[in-house]
């Protein structure tokens, strides 16, 4: 039984509205996925509401990205303060990351990077991308060498999304920690101010956990501070905005707690919802369960087969029932895929209405999802071919950025 | 009340033969200091016995250093295996270190370095010296910058002892971690294989301790493996011998436990007894208690005053009693200072006999101790003047060593 399958069982034993969210596991007892309003309350973040969206559009001077305006990026911390800075002509920087546990990324991995890229282009700011290969060595059955190799492969996928090498620094912890003393120094400053009790509360660490895991959170925290990158910021204090999935928030709650005590500004955050597994929103898409995920290496045929075979349907079982009752788009994975990857709002709304009313069938919406994703993945594969080892080394080299 | 004073009280409440030894505190209820035979039993190390001393002399091809032959280096792990390697013409390397918590070293700090230097010269082997400025930031009220500055000052004192720059690499963790990816990679390999339960058992860490402390032991462990220094050993596996005070053994018990699991050889160890505080062997000489210590920056007059005023005497209170009963040299700090710093065995034995019999008075042995230490400290001060920032940078630069 896979880890996530057994976790679903565990959660289903609990009362119906129980969700489980930490940086390593996400499960919900509901077919519609995690209750995000409750999560905002539990985590103490703020909702991205209509007012904030309107302000965001005004400051950006253009419509916000569909992943933001559709509420997929639904929660934030201090985003208003970042918009204040933009209005005052001050620069911030972007930080996001990824834990390299598989050779290829899947579609869900793209989500934070898509919005990060949009933010970078709109606001013309530098971006640092952390690959936590140290985390993956500590949590998975992977050697240091294997994790570092996965980090480089994942970085190629990220670069293929079209990031600007002049404004983007990509680093792997197992490499970068040994190349920038400021990184380790900030890790120590943070690790001095967080107790075992605190990380047990935040991350659920226990007595049997390796000290490597216990010592890891400051490593993910450190890039939230511009002083970690003296070669980019020249030691200046620049505020940070972190687009990430909401499950990473515990790291940054900890970071924000420490920040004033080391006299550095708290990072701001913009949180996304989870990208559903093909089997449905009870879990997120996971690289370790190949049937749950559409990989960026999948062929057009594989994408078609996976969606037809595995994509959880919110439609009715019989044709008659579907025509009569219509589908539940909240739990229909094909529809959710379109929400993430079909940019045209009007077209999406037409699909939603037709499918909800029973004018459209499950097979038809699957076909639409397949036809939307196939060219995106194919284009990604074309772009990735252009990412040579040399291009990768350029992105990962310690250097000044232009901004 | 100083930390060590309150610890003495704590220990005195326990039964008479209780000693307390960990990497941060050493106290004994006995005026003669820690019961070292019991410590060997408790730590599971081996005694440096007459047989090993004889073999050591044979392999070294010369008399062993007086600190070894007088039993001040009294315990070891796998020293025979190192001597086997020497006989087989194989090279090992030396690793020792220091936690930089004060601007100047005191006499006790010199002890492991004196024997390390002797071993390096006799066996012509490379040496790495770790300055754990990260540890001091984590344990003391010192900033990263302050600790790094102390590390450099301490390194100058170490260099002044006459180490060969061609065979010796000195590094500060807060600097080196950011300059050598292999260091962090080995830290992670070790930290993956040690649980919180284990470090709680070994070091007494608790739930309220910062995760920086909990994560530190692998940083002291990593230099026990030659793969941490690819620029010296070219990635080759070379066995390590660590001369250190016995209170550092917990780190290396942990290291030796992990070593086979990362397929690297266990470091060998040669342990010294503690250098007594001037007030007596119930505690070790400590830089944080200036009256307990003779610093390498002390003037001849300060040395004289400190010994006359503070050095605990094993002699009798009245002249008559001393003439009649003689002194107890086991607890007499001036005699102990001579055991550490007077190389001539015959002269030392004459002093011991005369003082024990009451032929020599407390004031006379204090005078001998003063006259022995004054020129050693003065000579050190002369040598230290020659250690410029440039010389220091040379010792601390990442480079190949000659061996």
Automatic annotation (TrEMBL), chains A, B:
Record keywords, A-Z: Aminoacyl-tRNA synthetase, ATP-binding, Cytoplasm, Ligase, Nucleotide-binding, Protein biosynthesis
Query: Single GO molecular-function term?
Result: ATP binding
| PROSITE patterns per UniProt | AA_TRNA_LIGASE_I
Highest taxon in the source lineage: Eukaryota
Q: Which GO terms describe its cellular component?
A: cytoplasm
Q: InterPro entries per the record?
A: aa-tRNA-synth_I_CS, aa-tRNA-synth_Ic, Rossmann-like_a/b/a_fold, Trp-tRNA-ligase
What is its subcellular localisation? Answer: Cytoplasm
Q: What is its EC number?
A: 6.1.1.2
Report whether Transferase shows up as a keyword of the record: no
Q: Which CDD domains does the entry mention?
A: TrpRS_core
Provide the primary localization.
cytoplasm
State if Nucleus is listed as a keyword.
no
Biological processes annotated in GO: tryptophanyl-tRNA aminoacylation
- Family membership, please give it: Belongs to the class-I aminoacyl-tRNA synthetase family.
Q: Which PANTHER family match?
A: TRYPTOPHAN--TRNA LIGASE, CYTOPLASMIC, TRYPTOPHANYL-TRNA SYNTHETASE
Annotated protein name in UniProt: Tryptophan--tRNA ligase, cytoplasmic
Q: Which organism is it from?
A: Pseudolycoriella hygida
Q: What is the lineage of its organism?
A: Eukaryota, Metazoa, Ecdysozoa, Arthropoda, Hexapoda
């Amino acid at each position: 039984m896979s880890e996530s399958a057994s976790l679903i069982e565990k959660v289903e034993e609990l009362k119906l509205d129980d969700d489980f969210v930490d940086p390593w596991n996400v499960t919900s007892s509901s077919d519609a996925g995690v209750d995000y309003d409750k999560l905002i309350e539990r985590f103490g973040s703020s909702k991205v509401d209509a007012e904030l969206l309107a302000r965001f559009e005004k400051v950006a001077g253009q419509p916000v990205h569909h992943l933001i305006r559709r509420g997929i990026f639904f929660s934030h911390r201090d985003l208003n303060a970042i918009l204040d800075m933009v209005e005052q002509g001050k620069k911030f920087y972007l930080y996001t990351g990824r834990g390299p546990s598989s050779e290829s990324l899947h579609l869900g991995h793209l989500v934070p990077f898509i919005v990060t890229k949009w933010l970078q282009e709109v606001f013309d700011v530098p971006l640092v991308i952390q690959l936590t290969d140290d985390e993956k060595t500590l949590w998975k059955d992977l050697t240091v060498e294997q994790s570092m190799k996965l980090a480089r492969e994942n970085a190629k996928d990220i670069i293929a999304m079209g990031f600007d090498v002049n404004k983007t620094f990509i680093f792997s912890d197992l490499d970068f920690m040994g190349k920038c003393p400021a990184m380790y120094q900030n890790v120590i400053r943070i690790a001095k101010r967080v107790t075992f009790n605190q990380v047990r509360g935040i991350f659920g660490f226990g007595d049997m956990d390796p000290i490597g895991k216990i010592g890891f959170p400051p490593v993910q925290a450190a890039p939230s501070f511009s002083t970690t990158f003296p070669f980019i910021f020249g030691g200046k204090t620049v505020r940070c905005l972190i687009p990430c999935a909401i499950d990473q928030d515990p790291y940054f709650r900890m970071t924000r707690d420490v920040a004033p005590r080391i006299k550095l500004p708290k990072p701001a955050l913009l949180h996304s919802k989870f990208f559903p597994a093909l089997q449905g929103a009870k879990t997120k898409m996971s690289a370790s369960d190949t049937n749950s995920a559409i990989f960026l290496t999948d062929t057009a045929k594989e994408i078609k087969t996976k969606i037809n075979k595995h994509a959880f349907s919110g439609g009715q079982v019989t044709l008659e029932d579907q025509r009569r009752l219509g589908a539940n788009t909240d739990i229909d994975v094909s529809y959710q895929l379109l929400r993430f990857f079909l940019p045209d709002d009007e077209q999406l709304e037409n699909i939603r209405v037709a499918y909800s009313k029973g004018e459209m069938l499950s097979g038809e919406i699957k076909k639409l999802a397949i036809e939307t994703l196939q060219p995106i993945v194919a284009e990604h594969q074309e772009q990735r071919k252009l990412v040579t080892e040399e291009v990768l080394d350029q992105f990962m080299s310690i250097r000044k950025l232009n901004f």
